[in-house]
Write a structure and sequence with these properties.
The protein is of the alpha/beta class and 286 residues long. It folds into 2 domains: 8-179, Rossmann fold, CATH 3.40.50; 201-270, Conserved Hypothetical Protein Ylqf, Chain: A, domain 2 (Orthogonal Bundle), CATH 1.10.1580.10. Helix content is 41%, strand content 12%. The protein has helices at residues 8-20, 42-48, 65-77, 96-103, 105-113, 133-141, 183-192, 202-216, 218-225, 235-246, 257-270, and strands at residues 26-32, 53-58, 82-84, 121-127, 159-163, 167-171. Strands 3-2-1-4-6-5 form a 6-stranded mixed β-sheet, sandwiched between helices. It is elongated. Bound molecules: guanosine-5'-triphosphate and magnesium ion. Residues 133-134, 154-155 line the site of magnesium ion (MG).
Length: 286
């Protein structure tokens, strides 16, 4: 999949994040547990420099639990503590304030010994669009303080949120990198919902996804769409099989493969197809 997308507001956010970094004690990098590598913005390593960092593997309810455990271990081994959370149910979120405090304890102790008054820990929350940054903050705050929606590009400007337990969190708009050189990365970002739907072909994305599922989780595909016998080898035929099963027809009486594509993407994103992780840590480096 070929996607070129870097709206002007993302360049602005990148500059803003760089500037605001001096205000914060720690950077919380929210990743999508289904694609921990592809959802990492390579920029973040460069921009955040030596700041303490905590990785949050969000949407872990949609990811393969075994691989989520492997990813936590992988990040920890490379010196980056990581915690898996589900910001819908709140699972794992309660442990986060303790982790943050531990990671910045040294700095806070230094501030105290230089005679400064105690203040809340300042945390900047960054990540790609639609990964759940605002949801995560709302769960941490225990209330709906930031705007959220199930499409990329909802948070527009940065916003500070005070959380009981002495944390100040900065919500930031999602940023993607300017160019996706790797087609596999573009594909994963598109099917997990990080890229606006108007910049890629739905047919194409759903077709790729069906192929990926048939290679990696064929039983999930068969069970959900009641496909018996051989799975079709060609993406377009798979879309037809799904459309057929669901009775999606165009006014002309043909199988409505666009409707099938929309439904496949929706069911994948909502977890109705199952829990999937699209990449394993063995193939990546930090
Ligand atoms: N299943 C599941 N869905 C989640 C989770 N966290 C967030 N979501 C969904 O992801 C969507 C996007 O969440 P937001 O918090 O608005 O995402 P964001 O990262 O702030 O997005 P931008 O502001 O656009 O950068 C929401 O519609 C949530 O329903 C999670 O842990 N699990
Ligand atoms: Mg947001």
């Amino acid at each position: 999949m070929d996607i070129q997308w870097f709206p002007g507001h993302m360049a602005k956010t990148r500059r803003q994040i760089k500037e605001d970094l001096k205000l914060v004690d720690i950077v919380i990098e929210v990743l999508d547990a289904r694609i921990p590598a592809s959802s990492r913005n390579p920029d973040v390593n460069v921009i955040t420099g030596g700041k303490p960092r905590l990785i949050i593997l969000n949407k872990s309810d949609l990811a393969d639990p075994v691989l989520t455990g492997s990813w936590e271990g992988f990040f920890l081994k490379t010196g980056l503590p990581a915690a898996a959370v589900d910001s819908l149910s709140g699972r794992g979120v309660k442990l986060v304030p303790g982790l943050i405090k531990r990671l910045i304890a040294k700095k806070m102790a230094e501030l105290a010994s230089s005679g400064r008054r105690p203040r809340p820990a300042r945390c900047m929350v960054v990540g790609i669009p639609n990964v759940g940054k605002s949801y995560f903050i709302n769960k941490l705050a225990g209330r709906g303080v930031t705007k959220t929606e199930d499409k990329p590009g909802i948070t527009r400007g940065r916003q500070w949120i005070r959380v009981a337990g002495a944390l100040d969190l900065m919500d930031t708009p999602g940023i993607l990198w300017p160019k996706f050189e790797d087609a596999a990365v573009s594909f994963r970002l598109a099917v997990t919902g990080a890229i606006k739907e108007d910049v890629y072909d739905l047919h194409d994305a759903a077709g790729h996804l069906l192929k990926w599922l048939s290679e990696n989780y064929p039983h999930a595909l068969r069970d959900r769409y009641k496909i018996t016998g051989e799975l079709p080898a060609v993406a377009e035929e798979m879309l037809e099989a799904v459309g057929n099963r669901r009775g999606f027809l165009t006014p002309g009486g043909k199988v409505d493969t666009l409707k099938a594509a929309q439904v496949v993407l929706k069911e994948f994103r909502s977890g109705r197809l199952g829990r999937f992780t699209m990449e394993a840590p063995e193939n990546f480096k930090v």
